[in-house]
Specification:
It is built from ten helices and ten strands. The protein is α+β, with helices and mostly antiparallel strands and about 325 residues long.
Length: about 325
C-alpha cells in the first residue's frame, strides 16, 4: 500500500471530477504552485496510482435507452464458454467475475426493454447457466471522487450530470471518432486527434466542448485502487417501502465516502450502490448508514475483489 497525502487526494479528486482539468487550474483551486502539483502528479504516475484516463459516455445519444445487469450462476467448467458466448452478444458493455453463487456479471446496452428478454432467452437456450437474474437500469450516478471526498477543495465539488440528449445532439463520424479516442485515452491531446483525422485542432476542440456541454461525454482519470489500500468493492441492493422517499435516500447515500456508483433499477431492487472498501469496517459503516434510513430495506449484498483500474472504460455518464 502506498500512502498518499492531502494534496495527492485533492489532485485525484479533481481529476476524477474532470479528467482533462489542467494542473495549472488545479494549482489555482488548491492555492498551490503549479510546480508542486506537477511533482505530485508525476509521482503518482510513477508509483502506478494514476494509470490512465477514459471518458464516460451518455449512450442515450446513440439510441440506447437502457442498460441492464445480468448476474449468472455458472458451473466452474462452463465459465470460459459462457464468457465467450456473452462476448458474442451485441452491445455488451462489460463482463467481470464475481465471487459467490452468481459468479459472472454482464452489463448490456439496450435500445428497448424487449432486447433484455431476447438476451436472457439466448442465455437460457445455450444451457450454460443454472440461474440468471437481471436488473434494468433506469438512471445512473457516478461518484468516483467520493473516494477522496474529505480532501476535495470546496470550489472543485460539483456533480456534472448527463442528460437525455435524444433529439438534442447530432453525432457524426468525427464525433464518434473523438468519443472512441477519448474512451481509450481521456487525456489524449486534441492536436494528436486532429492529425489522425486530418482536420484542425480548433475543430476538435469545438466538437469536444459541444459534446461535453450537451452531456454526452465526461473525461475522468483512472487509478489503481489497490495501490492506495482498497481490497474489495461491495454491492448493496436496496428497496424502498411504500411510505419512503427514494430520492431522499439516494441523496443521503450519494454523500457517503467510498460510494462511487448508484443505479436506479427495475428488478429485484429499486436501486443499488457500489462502494470500495479497505476493510470490513468500511462495509459495516455503509451497512449502518443504510440502517439509519427507516424506509429502506437491504435486499442483499455482494463483495467482489477490487479491480486494478478504476473507473473502467466506457461507463455510462451520470444521468441524474
Amino acid at each position: 500500500m502506498i500512502t498518499i497525502d492531502d494534496l495527492d487526494e485533492k489532485i485525484l479528486a479533481q481529476l476524477l471530477d474532470d479528467g482533462r482539468k489542467s494542473l495549472v487550474e488545479i494549482g489555482k483551486t488548491c492555492n498551490t504552485p503549479y510546480e508542486e502539483i506537477l511533482r505530485h502528479y508525476r509521482k503518482m504516475v510513477k508509483e502506478g496510482i494514476i494509470v490512465g484516463a477514459t471518458t464516460e459516455v451518455n449512450f442515450r445519444a446513440f439510441g440506447f435507452q437502457y442498460m441492464a445487469t445480468l448476474i449468472l450462476a455458472v458451473k466452474e467448467e462452463n465459465i470460459p464458454a459462457t464468457k465467450t458466448f456473452l462476448n458474442s452478444i451485441p452491445n455488451l458493455a462489460a463482463i467481470y467475475a464475481s465471487t459467490k453463487l452468481y459468479n459472472i456479471t454482464a452489463i448490456f446496452r439496450l435500445h428497448n426493454v424487449q432486447e433484455l428478454d431476447q438476451i436472457k432467452e439466448e442465455i437460457r437456450r445455450k444451457g450454460l447457466t443454472s440461474d440468471t437474474q437481471s436488473n434494468l437500469w433506469l438512471d445512473v450516478r457516478n461518484l468516483a471522487s467520493n473516494l477522496f471526498r474529505d480532501a476535495r477543495c470546496r470550489s472543485a465539488i460539483q456533480q456534472e450530470n448527463g442528460e437525455n440528449t435524444e433529439g438534442q445532439t447530432e453525432i457524426d463520424q468525427i464525433d464518434r471518432y473523438l468519443i472512441d479516442r477519448l474512451t481509450e485515452d481521456g487525456r489524449c491531446s486534441f492536436n494528436k486527434i486532429a492529425n489522425e483525422i486530418g482536420t484542425s485542432v480548433d475543430r476538435i476542440i469545438r466538437r469536444y466542448e459541444k459534446l461535453k456541454k450537451s452531456g454526452v461525454i465526461k473525461s475522468v482519470i483512472q487509478i489503481n485502487p489497490q495501490k492506495i489500500g482498497y481490497r474489495a468493492y461491495g454491492f448493496f441492493f436496496l428497496s424502498v417501502q411504500e411510505t419512503g422517499n427514494a430520492d431522499d435516500a439516494i441523496n443521503q447515500l450519494s454523500n457517503l465516502k467510498n460510494v462511487f456508483h448508484l443505479i436506479k433499477t427495475i428488478g429485484t431492487a429499486d436501486f443499488y450502490i457500489t462502494c470500495y472498501m479497505k476493510n470490513f469496517d468500511d462495509f459495516f459503516m455503509i451497512r449502518d448508514e443504510i440502517a439509519k434510513i427507516p424506509y429502506i430495506k437491504l435486499v442483499r449484498t455482494d463483495i467482489n475483489d477490487v479491480t486494478n483500474v478504476f473507473p473502467g472504460k466506457g461507463l455510462h455518464i451520470s444521468t441524474f
